[in-house]
């Protein structure tokens, strides 16, 4: 239970990739962290690409990044929606400024692109957004998981086991305020 006392935000919106949301959430909880699902509307149930539901326990606007130790951004089509919320971009920018773990998988890189935090950062993602990542200044690698400081990235669902471990490792070694 090396993550006891840690708090993590997991972002949700319609058509998140089911495994890319729930696998990391459960993995972090298994190690003792508290995870809060956050969406545009508190209490709304968002549906994943394959039909798995996720109820937002908090709205984005209720969150204060200083109260959290890390953030998880799922893939699927949700990132294209998430990147349009100013509060989501604010949370990601604040987490980045504080060097708190930011986990992103598959299309989640779109959120980090819109937050403008990828210049010079080595990452991976689904190959489908490689050009977007590189155009945002990132150094893209075709590897299951890439860790560059506090930014942990993965390509797709088969990479979830090493991604979950890498995010938990980063959270465990992150400095708490």
Query: What is the strand content?
Result: 15-25%
Distance between the termini: 20 Å
Number of strands: 11
Strand order across the largest sheet = 5-2-1-6-7-11-10
Total of DSSP H or I helical runs spanning 4+ residues: 6
Task: Provide the low-confidence segments as ranges.
Answer: none
Order of helices and strands: EHEEEEEHHEHEHEEEH
- Helix percentage range: 25-40%
- Largest sheet properties: 7 strands, mixed
Q: Would you tell me the structural class of the helices and strands?
A: alpha/beta
Mean of pLDDT: 97
How much is the radius of gyration in Å?
A: 14 Å
Keywords: Glycosidase, Hydrolase, Protease
Domain DJ-1/PfpI: 6-167
InterPro entries: C56_PfpI-like, Class_I_gatase-like, DJ-1/PfpI
Enzyme class: hydrolase
Describe the structure.
Belongs to the peptidase C56 family. This is Protease I. The protein has 177 residues and is α/β, with parallel strands linked by helices. 32% of the residues lie in helices and 22% in strands. It is built from six helices and eleven strands. The protein has a seven-stranded mixed β-sheet with strand order 5-2-1-6-7-11-10, sandwiched between helices. A hairpin with a 5-residue loop joins strand 3 and strand 4. Helix 1 packs across helix 6. The longest helix is centred in the C-terminal third of the chain and has 14 residues. It is globular, with a radius of gyration of 14 Å. The mean pLDDT is 97.
